[in-house]
Specification:
heterodimer; A: alpha/beta; Methyltransferase, Methionine Synthase (B12-binding Domains), Chain A, domain 1; Rossmann fold; 2 domains; elongated; B: alpha/beta; 3-stranded mixed beta sheet
């Protein structure tokens, strides 16, 4: 039964997923267990994406199904879900850039791989990154940007971390359509990732879990 | 005896379109007066260079070089993006200077900044632009969203004009919220005729029309400046390389109707409606491109492609959702002798085998992060390819690095012709010496022997 939810959700069979969830809820099952299965399924989706079996539409759709599942389960939740997390990551698209697709994919992949991600959204001012790093104590920062103007915003964001005395406390990764090793050097980041899985690998390496 | 247009083959039509490009007209429709005989010669050489690269019947004299720029000409002239969006004279001045200083074989017009005041008059919602959501120093960016709801496919499919006029337009222009398009298909007589006009007496509708007229006046001002740029460049010997934009139906729906999340969810929840809607949009896009070419006299239509790139869709999804209607559009242009310039941002490595399926010498594939050796191998015998010089190299590299990169591109992909050199995607910022290095290296190193 439990396996059914993990498998059908990972296979993106929305109608079947919703039926299973409704059945399990009306059978009085602990809602957290259902959410736990859903999380396992998202892990499978993430793995299939990393393996090149799934593509962006599949990732997006899995998120949409998860939304519906969460809405069904939420009213029955009595205590908040507590999941063990590998580590914290502050993430956002840098100032001046409002592209979110690439960022959302990396955030999704970090999340399903066990990281607690603070997603600051798009067009994030330099100061907001600095504040969130201080407040969360996250050792990893991800800067996303699709436009070439993001080069300078990334550089400024990293310089602001330096000015706030945070630079040696965090590892910074950058990524986006037009990011290369040249740009990594230019911005002063520690590493860049070509795709979402590269981001996960870097984060795991940095917290010693890779 | 000249053949009628309808009786001509696609080859004959393409030849006729190129002849039109080779003999530019002024706005009054007379033959354009060039600045000098040298300028006229340079113009014709440049067009011929592109023509030979595209048609693949013979090698051009050298590799044509062409360059896609966003707001860079503004920065190069010391203007902000905001200034050139609002002051068309500054825009034309900066764009003229860019073309004359760097001397690429063709230019892309000065359309990129767009008419800032018009966007303001209409309260345009689709984009943030300099001073309106993004800083005066930066380019505009799309506000992605669901501008068409998941349950509105039938409205689009059944009556696309009505959908665009009365549902979509009021959504994307704040000033046109009360807009009601004239619809006189109720053929009423005498007192009945009065009924047709009732909506246009309502004050909010009248206000929407007022905004429409103001926008029209602004659009005329703007297009006048754009034509002035094109004419100034042509008289100096620089042809416009493309005119008239077009898009793949999948991108039309995914970019500005349903949004990325919307269309990708629709691929699962309502695939048939999505496919049907793309079929409905297909003839509209073909018509739009043909109209652009008729107005401009430049037989190349720029097709900007987004969501079919590597990683966005699986091979199966690309073949089912993206390619079929996209190919119909391309064939619609090819049959009219128009050359689609296929601007494939990102990587297109996984699509090359699929998109090979087009007649020879009819399109240009402009590639960004695609492996050029692979592209030459798979597409090289059927289509002109180009692009690939990375904008980040132009922004932070050295002239020597650019030179080396350009030489490498030419070594890999220019053999036998069918190749145009240039940057793979829009250049917003760059070092001038790097742009010179790119263009000059192509001119020196790209000579066919």
């Amino acid at each position: 039964m439990a396996g059914d939810l993990v498998r059908t959700l990972a296979d993106l069979k929305e109608k079947e997923v919703l039926k299973i969830v409704k059945d399990r809820l009306s059978a009085g099952e602990e809602p957290l267990k259902i959410l736990d299965d859903a999380r396992k399924a998202m892990g499978v989706v993430g793995k299939r994406f990393a393996d090149g079996q799934y593509f962006i539409p599949d990732l997006v759709y899995s998120g949409e199904i998860l939304k519906v599942v969460t809405e069904l389960v939420k009213p029955k939740l009595t205590k908040a879900a507590e999941a063990k997390r590998l580590g914290k990551v502050v993430f956002g698209t840098v100032a001046g850039d409002i592209h979110d697709i690439g960022k959302d994919i990396v955030v999704f992949m970090l999340d399903v791989n066990g990281f607690e991600v603070f997603d600051l959204g798009v067009d994030v001012p330099v100061q907001k990154f600095v504040e969130k790093i201080k407040e969360s104590g996250a050792p990893i920062v991800g800067l996303s940007g699709f436009l070439t103007l993001a080069y300078d915003s990334m550089k400024e964001t990293i310089e602001a971390m330096k000015a706030a005395g945070l630079r040696d406390k965090v590892k910074v990764m950058i990524g986006g359509g037009q990011i290369t090793e040249e740009i990594r050097k230019y911005t002063g980041a520690d590493a860049f990732g070509k795709d979402a899985m590269a981001g996960v690998t870097l984060a795991k390496k940095w917290i010693g879990a890779g | 005896m000249e053949k009628k247009w309808e009786e001509m083959s696609p080859e004959e039509k393409q030849e006729a379109q190129f002849q039109m490009w080779l003999s530019p007209k002024d706005p009054q429709g007379n033959d354009l007066k060039f600045q000098s005989p040298q300028a006229e010669k340079a113009y014709k050489e440049r067009v011929t260079r592109f023509k030979d690269a595209i048609q693949m019947k013979k090698k051009p004299d050298r590799v044509p070089v062409f360059n896609i720029y966003g707001f860079y000409p503004a920065l190069y002239s010391g203007f902000t993006p905001q200034e050139v969006m609002y002051d068309y004279d500054k825009c034309v001045k900066a764009w003229n200077k860019y073309v004359l200083d760097f001397a690429p074989d063709g230019h892309i017009g000065a359309y990129v900044p767009g008419p800032g005041k018009l966007f303001e008059i209409l309260d345009y919602k689709l984009y943030k632009w300099p001073g309106h959501g993004v800083s005066p120093q930066h380019s505009y960016q799309c506000n992605e969203g669901e501008y068409m709801m998941a349950d509105e496919y039938d409205a689009l499919i059944q009556d696309p004009s009505n959908f665009y006029n009365n549902i979509y337009t009021p959504r994307i222009y704040g000033a046109l919220q009360a807009f009601t398009a004239p619809s006189f298909s109720n053929v009423l007589e005498m007192y009945g005729a009065g009924l047709n006009f009732i909506p246009f007496g309502i004050p909010p509708v009248q206000a929407a029309y007022k905004a429409l007229f103001d926008a029209g006046a602004e659009a005329l001002k703007w297009i006048g400046a754009m034509v002035a740029h094109n004419i100034a460049m042509a008289t100096a010997g620089f042809p416009a390389f493309w005119d008239g934009p077009a898009k793949a139906p999948f991108d039309m729906i995914g970019d500005t109707l349903r949004g990325t999340k919307g269309i990708m969810t629709d691929m699962y929840r309502q695939p048939d409606k999505l496919l049907q809607a793309m079929e409905v949009l297909t003839p509209l896009v073909i018509k739009m491109g043909i109209g652009g070419v008729k107005m401009s006299g430049v037989p190349i239509v720029a097709v900007v492609m987004h969501k079919g790139a590597d990683g966005f869709l699986s091979d199966e999804q690309y073949k089912k959702f993206y390619w079929p209607t996209f190919r119909k559009i391309l064939m619609g242009y090819i049959n009219e002798g128009i050359v689609p310039f296929l601007f494939a941002e990102g990587g297109y490595n996984s699509r090359l085998e699929v998109v090979r399926d087009l007649p020879k010498g009819k399109v240009i594939w402009w590639l960004d992060r695609t492996d050029m050796a692979k592209a030459k191998k798979i597409l090289g015998d059927v289509a002109c390819i180009g692009g690939n010089v990375p904008p980040d190299l132009l922004a932070v590299g050295t002239p020597q690095q650019v030179k080396d990169y350009v030489k490498k591109c030419i070594d890999i992909a220019a053999k036998g012709g069918g190749y145009i050199l240039g940057n793979g995607t829009v250049m917003e910022d760059a070092k001038p010496e790097n742009i010179h290095a790119m263009i000059d290296t192509a001119k020196e190193y790209g000579v066919y022997k």
